[in-house]
Amino acid sequence: MTMETTTTDGSLETYEGLLAAISASEGTPVLDPATGEVLAHAPASTPADLDAAVEAARAAQPAWEALGHERRSAILVEAADAVDRSAAALAELISREQGKPLNGPGSRFEAGGVSAWLRTAAATELPDETLLEEPRATIAYRAVGLVGAIGPWNWPALIASWQLAPALRMGNAVIMKPSEHTPLSVLALGAILGQVLPEGVLTVLAGDRDLGAALTTHPAFGKIMFTGSTATGKAIVAASADNLPRLTLELGGNDPGIVLPDVDPAAIAQDLFWGAFINTGQTCAALKRLYVHEDVYDAVVEALRAVASQVPMGPGIEEASALGPLTTSDQFAIVDRLVEDARASGGRIVLGGDPDRDAPGNFYPATLVADIDAHAALVVEEQFGPALPIVRYRDLDEAIALANGLDVGLGASVWSADAAAARTVAARVQAGTVWINSHGGVHPMIPFGGIKGSGYGLEFGVEGLKAVAVPHVING
C-alpha cells in the first residue's frame, strides 16, 4: 500500500490528524512501549504493493532528475518547511510509538533533525570536477535511478531522512520500508513530504520481513541503504548479490570509550552519561563499553552514578521524562539477560539492574555495572539499552587492544584533559568515527559510517551525496 497525500489544509499539523492520515482500520498493530497497548494499526504492504510502487517510481524518476539540482534543492527546502509545520505532531507520534522523551535529545530533537538533514542535502554542492586539463578528464555524479531504503526502529524518522534526503537531492526516486516496530513515524514523514514532492518520487511501504526481502532482491534498485543489525546486513549482501546494487550498510555498534588518567571525573560525567544513555541506550553509535584507568576508576564510577541517579525515567510523552522505555519487549529481555549475567559473574551493580518485570511498558532503569570482567557478555555483546559496563584497566595498550578486539567499528571515544594525547590514542582505535571528550554526536556535513562488522559506505555531506549517485567520467 503506497502512501500519497497532497493535502495542504493543515490536517497533518496535529497529532490526531497525522495519525488519522497514515493509520489503517486493520493491519499490523503498533504498540505503545510505555503501556504495551495498541497505539494504531499500520498498513500491511505486500510484495505486490512493492511492484506497484516500483512502477510508479520508474515513471516519476526521469522527470524528477530532469528538474536539475537547483530546482530539486528548492523543493527539498519546501519539504523541510512542511516538516517544521508538522514538527510538534511528528514529535508526539515518535514519542508514543518509539518511546523516546519529547525533550533533550528526544523526539523534538529528532523532528528538528529531519528538517536539518533535508536543508543540508539541499544546500550541499557537488559540482562537476575537472580531474586533468590535458588530456581533459572530468567527473560528474548522476542519479542511480531507484533507491531502496530499509530503516531501524530506534531513530525512525531521523534515519529515514538520512537515507531519503541525499537520494532525492541527487535525482533518485526512493522507496522506503520502515521497521515493523515503528512504521507510523516514517509513514507520517512520507505523508508530510508528499505534500510537496511529485507523486511517485517517494513511497513509504510498511510491512514485515517478507516485504524487506522482496525489496533487497528486486532488480529495479540501483542502490540499497540499510541501517540495522550486522546479521541482517549480511543477509542483504547475500540476497542482493545477483543484482549488484550499490550498498550502504550502517550496522551494529558496541562502541568503546577509553578514559585516560588525567581526566576530571566530575567534568566529563554528564557527557559520558548521555553518550551512553541517549535514547535509553538504543543508538547504534552510543557508548556501550567504557574502559577507565585505575587511577580515576572509582571517581569516574561515582561521578556517573551521581548523574544517572538524577535522570528521571517515564513515558516519553510526559514532559518531565528524560529517559523512556525500551521500544520492544524483546529488547527489554536482552538487556535484562545481559545484566543478570553480569551480576552472576561477579559484576557490581552500582545503580539500577532492578526492573519491575510485572509492570506495564518496557521500562528498564539506567544501570551501571562496575568491576566487570572485560570479556563478560555485557561487554562483548551489544546490549542496545540502558546498561553500561565499566571496565578497569592499568595499561593503555591493553585498553586499546580491548577496544579493538571485537568485530565492530562504528564509533569510539577517547576522554582526556590533553587533546593531543587523546588524538594520539584515537588514531590507534579501529572505528569509523572517534570522538574526543564526547560520544555519538553527528553533523549533516561530517561523513559517518562504520568498518569491520559495522558495515560500509558513508552518509552525510558531500560523501553522502556521492554514495547515492553513480560517477560519470568523460575522458577527452
From TrEMBL:
Where are the membrane-spanning stretches?
none
InterPro entries listed in its UniProt record: Ald_DH/histidinol_DH, Ald_DH_C, Ald_DH_CS_CYS, Ald_DH_CS_GLU, Ald_DH_N, Aldehyde_DH_dom, LUC3-like
SUPFAM superfamilies cross-referenced by the UniProt entry: ALDH-like
Q: Sorted alphabetically, which Pfam families does this protein's record hold?
A: Aldedh (PF00171)
Query: Highest taxon of the source?
Result: Bacteria
In this protein, the active site sits at E250
Q: Which UniProt keywords apply?
A: Oxidoreductase
Query: Record keywords: Oxidoreductase included?
Result: yes
Q: Where is the Aldehyde dehydrogenase domain?
A: 26-468
Homology family = Belongs to the aldehyde dehydrogenase family.
PANTHER family referenced in this protein's UniProt entry, alphabetically = ALDEHYDE DEHYDROGENASE-RELATED
What protein name is recorded for this chain?
A: Aldehyde dehydrogenase family protein
Q: Which organism is it from?
A: Agrococcus versicolor
